[in-house]
Specification:
This protein has about 475 residues and is of the alpha+beta class. It is about 55% helix and about 20% strand. It contains twelve helices and 13 strands. The longest helix is centred in the first third of the chain and has 58 residues, at about 5-60. The protein is rod-shaped. The two termini are about 55 Å apart.
């Protein structure tokens, strides 16, 4: 059920309850007034008839006072609702009775003594319902052995109350209709922001995360709309982040699978050859050497992957002030075999700078930069390490990187020259690892390269890390 319908229904029920309560009060007060009026009028008629009868008897002094005269009196003086009987000892004689009610029936009604001070006489009164009509029966003994009953039809009281009930029902219905007609446009306008909120929520649930509400009011609904917009923005941001993360993971795993496939295939092929073919000692040594090299490649690949996964969690590092000379010497020792194989030289320039870094990680990052520089350079060339006040850079004089490739090479598994990179054992993870290490150290990896002339890879720190005091 719609909220507007529920509010309208509850409001109408409240109005109906109020109307019923007021109508019941009016009905009760009016009913009592009509009943009192009817009782008073019936009492007046009964006492006036009785008074006239008594005066007439006193005037006659008993002369001509017989049953025929009494019959004549009630016939001419009353309206036909009087009943009179003469009761002498055990004998009862009907004097006047134009009703269907007999003496025994009338005498056995449930009478109660009542009196109205403004009228003469004293009667007992009973109420009688007969064939759908309502009567008041007054009983009195007027002397001379007479039993007198006065019957008054007060059905008109219920007829009036029936008409009043109909009027009250019509008024209540009119009030309800006016209430619904009045509430409908007001609630429609008041609840319009909630309807828009519902539509936007449904659209967001269907994946349309860009939906926003127009906030045009400053009440609670307006605040709800503002909070909804904030929530929608947060959901959109989070969803995009998750989608990007999931896409990266999918690409990462796809590229990883592809990268693992080549060395595993080679290892499997050489292993089968060693198991099933007769090879010379030299061929066996060559096959085992290749298997050993490919296993080393897989080990380096898995190690780099673990580094990527660890650094991607935004874990704060424990940074210590480290002389750049110590870092360059560690890089030189680690790359000594690489430089020998490539017949290259590694040179470095520094002026006693110190940096707040995690030494092992920053050393690993520079080693990766040197490794990439060696792969891009010709045999016999050189690679230069240089430190400044707020940067560390690795420069080579090799092939260089095209402008359109300079941003993409920082993505995991991306390689400018895939055939050359695989030939020299690359997997496209080195620079991606360097980027994460740089991010953990609050610095940026910048690339300056010219095709055919070489490349400079620079770790530019956002803070001056040479000072004695450093705060992250």
């Amino acid at each position: 059920m719609k909220l507007r319908t529920r509010i309208t229904g509850i409001s109408c029920l409240a109005v109906l309850a109020a109307c019923v309560a007021v109508s019941a009060l009016i009905w009760g007060v009016t009913m009592r007034s009509y009943q009192n009026e009817a009782h008073a009028k019936a009492w007046q008629n009964a006492t006036m008839t009785q008074s006239r009868l008594i005066r007439r008897m006193e005037e006659l002094g008993g002369r001509y006072f017989n049953d025929s005269y009494l019959h004549y009196f009630f016939k001419t003086e009353s309206d036909g609702y009087s009943v009179c009987y003469r009761v002498q000892d055990t004998e009862t004689a009907e004097i006047y009775n134009q009703t269907v009610f007999q003496l025994e029936f009338l005498k056995n009604l449930n009478y109660a003594p009542v009196a109205y001070s403004e009228f003469e006489g004293n009667f007992d009164m009973a109420q009688l319902n007969w064939e759908g009509r309502h009567y008041l029966v007054f009983q009195s003994s007027s002397g001379w052995d007479l039993q007198y009953f006065r019957i008054e039809d007060i059905t008109y009281v219920w007829e009036r109350m029936g008409r009043l009930t109909g009027i009250l029902v019509l008024i209540t219905a009119g009030v309800l209709l006016c209430t619904m007609a009045f509430l409908s446009p007001i609630l429609k306008r008041a609840l319009k922001p909630l309807q828009e909120l519902n539509v936007s929520a449904r659209q967001i649930a269907e994946g349309q995360y860009h939906q926003r509400l127009a906030v045009s009011r400053r009440d609670e609904i307006g605040q709800l709309s503002e909070n909804f917009n904030k929530m929608a923005a947060a959901v959109e941001l989070r969803t995009r982040s998750l989608e990007e993360s999931e896409l990266k993971k999918t690409l990462f795993m796809g590229n990883l699978t592809h990268e693992l496939k080549t060395p595993m295939t080679s290892i499997s092929g050489y292993a089968q050859t060693l198991l099933h073919a007769k090879l010379s000692e030299e061929d066996q040594k060559e096959a085992l050497t290749y298997i050993y090299q490919e296993c080393g490649r897989l080990e380096r690949l898995s190690r780099k992957m673990m580094k990527l996964l660890e650094l991607d969690r935004d874990v704060e590092l424990a940074l210590t002030k480290t002389p750049i000379e110590d870092i360059f010497r560690a890089v030189e020792r680690a790359c000594q075999e690489l430089m020998r194989q490539r017949q290259m030289t590694l040179e470095w320039e520094e002026a006693g700078q110190s940096f707040f870094v995690e030494q092992d990680l920053i050393t690993d990052a520079i080693i990766n930069l040197v490794d990439n520089a060696a792969k891009a350079s010709k045999a016999g060339g050189k690679i230069l390490l240089r430190a400044g006040a707020d940067f560390i850079e690795v420069e080579d004089f090799g092939k260089g990187i095209p402008k359109e490739e300079q941003e993409r090479i920082l993505e995991p598994f991306y390689m400018v020259d895939k055939s050359r990179s695989r030939k020299v054992g690359g997997a496209g993870l080195g620079l991606a690892l360097v980027v994460l290490i740089a991010k953990a150290h609050h610095c940026e990896l910048k690339i300056e390269s010219e095709v055919g002339r070489g490349t400079v890879m620079r770790l530019a720190f956002t803070n001056c890390l040479n000072c004695d005091e450093y705060s992250m």
